[in-house]
Amino acid sequence: MTVPLEYFVIVAAVLFMTGAVGFLIRRNLLVLLMSIELMLNAVNLTLVAFNRQHVGGHTGQIFTFFIIAIAAAEAAVGLAIVLAFFRLRSTVRSDDADLLRN
Amino acid sequence: MNKLELAFFGLCSVIALLGAIVTVGAKNPIRGAMGLLSTIIGIAGLYLMLAAEFLAAIQLLVYAGAVVILFLFVIMLLGPSAQSKRDARGAVARYVGAAAMLVSGLGAMVLVMRTQSGTPTALPAAPPQFGTIESIGHELFSTALVPFELSGALLLVAVIGAVAVARGKQVDPTLLPAADAKPSQAPSPNARTAGQTKEARS
């Protein structure tokens, strides 16, 4: 008997919550992007685990493949935005990103 | 269940969860990136346990090889200012929001687990072709062909957008040639650089 499905889902849930809490309490833009990556990884783990339960197809794994591609694009664009913001304000604190306020 | 499998599962999940906690809690972003790397390696191990060999390889290649390295490049480019200073403004609201998120997430987990019948779901035996590069590739190029091509286009657009956003318009004033001060001068060896400067300023 193998490791049951629930264990993987619980690990993914705890991972997702860690990423979400980090996104909420931190104010460094780089750490915020890393927290987003954590949450995406947790969702990927859930998809692969449920795909393992239904071994007839590969839908979950294909989904995960596309999510990884999108996460790479998101990281590239997000880091470019962080760089542009740093050039503008000389900081990476998310509190200082208030150009659209008022 | 198999003791060895359970031990490997425990090792991978502990690596992943500790890495996640380091990522979220580290003051130094470089340490955070290292925590992210540890999480990614742990999740790649879990993918191997779930018979997703192709995805484990892709995870290591794309995340550990590209995304984390990109993070490290940006952190090192920013230098010491990548580490933002402590600031207590709005801390209460942040921690209340995070606690609400944590409570609702844990509550959802408990509720879902209470509806289960008690015995954990055993995973069925995987066929030998499950999760291999061959079968994933076959599916990727038959049923998922259109999204696959679209994701290629998305990556191209994202790379062009990243270059356009990160390049900026500023010119370092120390690099400007002195010929800029006398624009009426006849064409000289640095006329080209002067033209470039004018372009960069407009």
Automatic annotation (TrEMBL), chain A:
- Which reaction(s) are listed as its catalytic activity? a quinone + NADH + 5 H(+)(in) = a quinol + NAD(+) + 4 H(+)(out)
Which membrane topology term applies here? Multi-pass membrane protein
Q: Which UniProt keywords apply?
A: Cell membrane, Membrane, NAD, Oxidoreductase, Quinone, Translocase, Transmembrane, Transmembrane helix, Transport, Ubiquinone
InterPro entries named in the record: NADH_UbQ_OxRdtase_chain4L/K, NUOK/Mnh_C1-like
What Pfam families is this protein classified in? Oxidored_q2
- Enzyme class at the top of the EC tree: translocase
Compartments in which it is found: Cell membrane; Membrane
Tell me the Gene3D superfamilies matching this sequence: 1.10.287.3510
- The main place the protein resides is membrane
Record's superkingdom? Bacteria
Q: Where are the transmembrane segments?
A: 6-25, 30-50, 62-86
Entry's PANTHER family?
Answer: NADH-UBIQUINONE OXIDOREDUCTASE CHAIN 4L, NADH-UBIQUINONE OXIDOREDUCTASE SUBUNIT ND4L
The record's similarity note reads: Belongs to the complex I subunit 4L family.
Q: Sum up the protein's function in the record's words.
A: NDH-1 shuttles electrons from NADH, via FMN and iron-sulfur (Fe-S) centers, to quinones in the respiratory chain. The immediate electron acceptor for the enzyme in this species is believed to be ubiquinone. Couples the redox reaction to proton translocation (for every two electrons transferred, four hydrogen ions are translocated across the cytoplasmic membrane), and thus conserves the redox energy in a proton gradient.
Protein name from the UniProt record: NADH-quinone oxidoreductase subunit K
**Annotated source species:** Polyangium mundeleinium
UniProtKB/TrEMBL annotation, chain B:
Its Enzyme Commission number(s) read: 7.1.1.-
The places in or outside the cell where this protein is found are: Cell membrane
Q: Is GTP-binding tagged as a keyword? A: no
Chain intervals for the UniProt region annotation (Disordered): 176-202
Q: Which Gene3D superfamilies match?
A: NADH-ubiquinone/plastoquinone oxidoreductase chain 6, subunit NuoJ (1.20.120.1200)
Membrane topology classification: Multi-pass membrane protein
Task: List compositional bias (Polar residues) regions by residue number.
Answer: 185-196
Q: Write down the chemical reaction(s) this protein catalyses.
A: a quinone + NADH + 5 H(+)(in) = a quinol + NAD(+) + 4 H(+)(out)
**Which controlled-vocabulary keywords does the entry list?**
Cell membrane, Membrane, NAD, Oxidoreductase, Quinone, Transmembrane, Transmembrane helix
Membrane-crossing residue ranges in chain numbering: 6-26, 33-50, 56-79, 91-113, 144-166
The protein's job, in short, is: NDH-1 shuttles electrons from NADH, via FMN and iron-sulfur (Fe-S) centers, to quinones in the respiratory chain. Couples the redox reaction to proton translocation (for every two electrons transferred, four hydrogen ions are translocated across the cytoplasmic membrane), and thus conserves the redox energy in a proton gradient.
* UniProt similarity note: Belongs to the complex I subunit 6 family.
Note the PANTHER family from the entry. NADH-UBIQUINONE OXIDOREDUCTASE CHAIN 6
UniProt protein name: NADH-quinone oxidoreductase subunit J
